[in-house]
Every structure is written in C-alpha cells, then in structure tokens.
C-alpha cells in the first residue's frame, strides 16, 4: 500500500548558527512559523546532551507555539526521558548519541541495548508519546522492534546518502527491504539523515515510507532562498517523486 508521505523539518542548524555567536538571532520560532506556513507536517528537533544547538528553553518554546506535530529526538538516557515526559511532544525519536560525533552516526543497536531501549520506550509510551527508534535498515534489528513495543521506526539513510554509484543502489535496496518488512509487521516507517534535494527522490518513492526528517540540506538551501521556500521545494520534490512511483 502507498501511504501519504510527510515531511518533518529539522531546524537544529538554525539554532547552530545562533549558538555560534550566542546571539538571539536567527529566531528559531520565526523559522518554525515559516516551515509551518510552507506546509511541513512536523517540526523536528534534537536536544543533544551537550546542548550544542537546541537548548532546553527552545524545546519548551516550541511546545508552546508549534501548531504542527513535534518530533523530539533524544538519546535513551534518564535525563532525556525525564525532559520528554515533562514536555510531552507528540513524537519522540530515540537516537544513539556520542559527544564527540559531528552528527548522529548510525542507528541504535536494539540488540545489544535491548533492555535499556525497551525500558525508555515503555516509559515514553506510558507518558503519552508515540515512540520511534532510529535504526539501521537491518532486518534482524527490525524483527526486534515489536518486542520493544515502539510503533514507529526511522530508518537511517546516512550510509545511502554518503555512498555513490552501485554502493548507493545496494544501500537503497536494503532500505526498501527494511521498509517492506517493517510495514508488514505493522510498524510505521520514517527515514532520515543526509537527505538532500537529489537523493531524497528515490527514498520518497518507497511506497511504505510515511515521513522523512530532513535538516542540514534544507537549512543550507535556506541561506539562498529562505526556509519557507526551501520547505516548499522539498515538499514539491517529495510529492512529484511519489507521483512518479
Ligand atoms: N533524523 C535523525 C534521527 C537525526 O538524528 C537527524 C540529524 O539530527 C536527522 C534526521 C536529520 O539529518 P540531516 O540534518 O542530515 O538532514
């Protein structure tokens, strides 16, 4: 079955620019408003342990002012589960996090960290949030998701985005197979990481795909055309990719 495809715009790097100088601008709330106006279905933010971009206050401000769905990405830690249970965004995405990484590197290891991820997932579900697990397009990992109890996964597309030629096609095939399996298990399938105005087309064409979370490439595009137009362009690209399935 072909599902409607939604866009979550990750606005972390608007905050990166603000934090670089400790200025009050660029205003994250204005960026959020423009993204909403452009028609994106969700606002995605990652509250990192080191608070390198999004700050705690941003999370609460977004909760207060956002008119769309909020997708809060967090590491599976006590501190983050506590904040999430206080804010209660509609969606939570559990991601692995290492302080020294430039950006999220790879998906959660739901096999080795099964108990911790299951515990966090159950607490977040009990707090009224929909929980997504950011995982590799790996069939063995996907088969463990129903036992953890998360209703959603976000497939890591970073390897696909960085690969070229045949290697990229092989990775695309892994993502397609992973999406098919997850969908057949009744899991909602999202994807994200490293997606841009070229490589998003093939991912948007995967019929089981429900939502793409895209940040860096869109904020980079926004330097030239503004975040509203960058969002309009990505939504149009996703829709036309869907129409050409
Ligand atoms: N999805 C997840 C789980 C992420 O951690 C990130 C980066 O914060 C993204 C999507 C967006 O990735 P990018 O900025 O490369 O588009």
Tell me what you see in this structure.
With 245 residues, the protein is α/β, with parallel strands linked by helices. The protein contains 11 helices and 8 strands. The chain has helices spanning 12-21, 28-38, 56-65, 78-87, 114-126, 139-148, 158-162, 165-184, 200-204, 216-225, 227-243; strands at residues 6-10, 42-46, 69-74, 91-94, 130-135, 152-156, 188-192, 209-214. The protein has an 8-stranded parallel barrel, surrounded by 8 helices. The mean pLDDT is 96. The protein binds pyridoxine-5'-phosphate (PXP). The site of pyridoxine-5'-phosphate has 19 residues, from β8 and α10.
Strand content: 15-25%
Ligands (ions, cofactors included): pyridoxine-5'-phosphate
Number of strands: 8
Return residue spans where pLDDT drops below 50 for at least 5 consecutive residues: none
Q: Give the % helix.
A: 40-55%
The side-by-side strand order for the widest beta sheet comes to 1-2-3-4-5-6-7-8
Silhouette: globular
- The end-to-end span amounts to 12 Å
Note the main sheet: 8 strands, parallel, barrel
Number of helices: 11
| Oligomeric description of these chains | single chain
- H/E element sequence: EHHEHEHEHEHEHHEHEHH
User: Which structural category fits the helices and strands?
Assistant: alpha/beta
Q: Averaging pLDDT over every residue, what do you get?
A: 96
Radius of gyration from CA coordinates: 17 Å
């Amino acid at each position: 079955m072909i599902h409607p495809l939604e866009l979550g715009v990750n606005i972390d790097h608007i905050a990166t620019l603000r934090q670089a100088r400790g200025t009050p601008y660029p205003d994250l709330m204005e960026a959020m408003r423009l993204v909403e106006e452009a028609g994106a279905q969700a606002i995605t933010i990652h509250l990192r342990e080191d608070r390198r971009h999004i700050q705690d206050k941003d999370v609460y401000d977004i909760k207060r002012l956002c008119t769309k769905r909020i997708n809060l990405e967090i590491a599976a830690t006590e501190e983050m589960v506590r904040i999430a249970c206080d804010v209660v965004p509609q969606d939570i995405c559990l991601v692995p996090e290492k302080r020294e990484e430039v950006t999220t590197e790879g998906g959660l290891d739901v096999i080795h960290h099964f108990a911790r991820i299951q515990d966090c997932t159950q607490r977040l579900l009990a707090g009224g949030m929909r929980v997504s697990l950011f995982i590799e397009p790996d069939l063995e990992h996907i088969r463990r998701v129903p036992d953890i109890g998360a209703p959603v996964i976000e497939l890591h597309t970073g390897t696909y985005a960085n690969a070229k030629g045949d290697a990229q096609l092989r990775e695309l095939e892994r993502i397609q197979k992973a999406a098919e399996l997850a969908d057949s298990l009744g899991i909602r399938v999202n994807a994200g990481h490293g997606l841009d105005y070229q490589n998003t087309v093939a991912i948007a064409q995967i019929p089981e795909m429900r939502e793409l979370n895209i940040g860096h490439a869109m904020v980079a595009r926004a330097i030239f055309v503004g975040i509203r137009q960058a969002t309009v362009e990505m939504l149009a690209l996703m829709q036309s990719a869907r129409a050409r399935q």
